[in-house]
Amino acid sequence: MTIGKVAVCGAGGTMGAGIALVSARAGFQTVCFDMSAEALARQRKAAEKFFGKSVERGRMTAEECDAALARLVDTTDLAALADCDLVIEAIFENLEVKQELFGKLNGICKPETIFASNTSTLSITQIAGGCGREDRVVGMHFCLPAQLMKLIEMSRGLNTSDEAFRTAWAWTEAAGQIPVETQDKPGFILNALLVPFNNDVIRAIEAGLATPEDIDTAIKVGLGYKMGPCSLLDLIGLDTQIRLGEAFYPITLDKRASVPPLLRRMVAAGKLGDKSGQGFLTGARREKASAAPAYSIRAAGESRSFPAGDAFLDGRAKDAEVVVHLGGGYAPDPARTAVLVELDTECLGLYAGEDMGREGSNAVGFARYRNGDDAPSNLIELVRQPNTDPKAIEAARAVFEAAGFDTVLCKDQPGRIIDRLVRPKYNDALRFLDEGLASAADIDRTCAMGLGYPDGPVERVTRGGLARHHDVTAAIYRMTGNPAYAPARAAVVAKDSEAAR
């Protein structure tokens, strides 16, 4: 079967409209269906603007623009989809509504028409159930914005025929997209990793770990992500994140997928992100320090933050108001403005002591984020206790920022910012490999292409060392008891193999 005419249900929405643009741009006659004529008219103007900019940027000619727009036909009549070869639904995440739509389409469309669902969390097998052509239903999850992102997650339901899947796969390639195959499991690859991760970020904010701005800075500088998680949440909409959690959690019973209370409060307050003008990010910016007090260095052991030859070591003074302890050493020195203590997997309280939430001194923890034996990043995570002297914190910021680093500040909690947030994601990726959800290459390709990551989670955690991953997650798990940090099987094997050598 050859696909010549495509329909998109929900084309009045952002995702559906983007899918329609992909189809029309690739030369397919495209029927844009939505129950709202107003929404279709709005997306028609958006399509004209999008293709117009493509002409301005030299990506298509004026004639190609006109032809693509002519291939888009708007309708509010479901019967207009009768002669389509492929129908892609991009309506909201509700199983019953999707099932009802496919049931209606089954009585309208020709027998050979393939139905595809753009669902991000629901089961393709369940969506297809009872529609009358379960063998011709496939999963086809586009990434937002569909007209710009090339990746499509393709999945088969239990009853999907090989012919239907191959035909749908061929269409995605003909449309200029890049498909990856994943199993029909909740969230597939992208959202199975992203939804719990985003919720972890929200819970970290709710717990006062760090500001949304510092979390975004940490993730972008430390990991090289193009967009911080708080920026992404504001972009996709906080109400959308709630819907994703509500669809995902009942299927998986993964507590990390459940909707955080802070998220519900913000949506109730009308803070939906970019669409409402208020979200997690406030727009507040802090100027980096250009001058700093002098610092001396005391080394008790090898430093992960500043290996031998690092330029930071050359800036030391013989005796100064700030002292930097490297390699796990610490000595109280209240006469100094600040005593900076390098941390690995331990908390600052191990050195400076704890007093039931009343602790405070001039001691500031720090760690330069580093993935295994990769070169250290430019990020310095600063660690404070409840009553750490503000002058000590500012001195710590100044010392590192004047040396060219980016700094973020967080509470003295296991994993600080980056390891607290990304280690559960790495565990998930390793577990997906064990479960056969997708290949390592496809998991990494999905994250790189769908989320703009510089490398995928499997590649990154492997490069950083699975034994190292074991040590970091085991330390956090021991302090928190949170099963998300229990080391993945592959990490345990790597650690045991290291011990046996």
How does this structure look, described?
It is a single chain. This protein has 501 residues and is α/β, with parallel strands linked by helices. The chain is 44% helix and 14% strand. The chain has an eight-stranded mixed beta sheet, sandwiched between helices. A hairpin with an 8-residue loop joins β6 and β7. α10 runs antiparallel to α11 (261-268) and α18 crosses α19. The longest helix is centred in the first third of the chain and has 20 residues, at 37-56. It is elongated, with a radius of gyration of 26 Å. The termini are far apart. The model has no long low-confidence stretch (mean pLDDT 95).
In short:
The chain has 501 residues and is an alpha/beta fold. The protein is 44% helix and 14% strand.
List the helices and strands and how they pair.
Layout: E1 5-9, H1 14-25, E2 29-33, H2 37-56, H3 62-70, E3 72-75, E4 86-89, H4 95-108, E5 114-117, H5 124-128, E6 137-142, E7 151-156, H6 162-174, E8 178-181, H7 190-206, H8 212-223, H9 229-236, H10 238-252, H11 261-268, E9 295-299, H12 311-314, E10 322-326, E11 338-342, H13 349-352, E12 363-368, E13 379-384, H14 390-402, E14 406-411, H15 418-435, H16 440-451, H17 457-464, H18 466-480, H19 489-500
Parallel strand pairs: 1-2, 1-4, 2-3, 4-5, 5-6, 7-8, 9-10, 10-11, 11-12, 13-14
Antiparallel strand pairs: 6-7, 12-13
Helix pairs in contact: 2-3, 7-10, 7-15, 9-10, 10-11, 15-18, 18-19
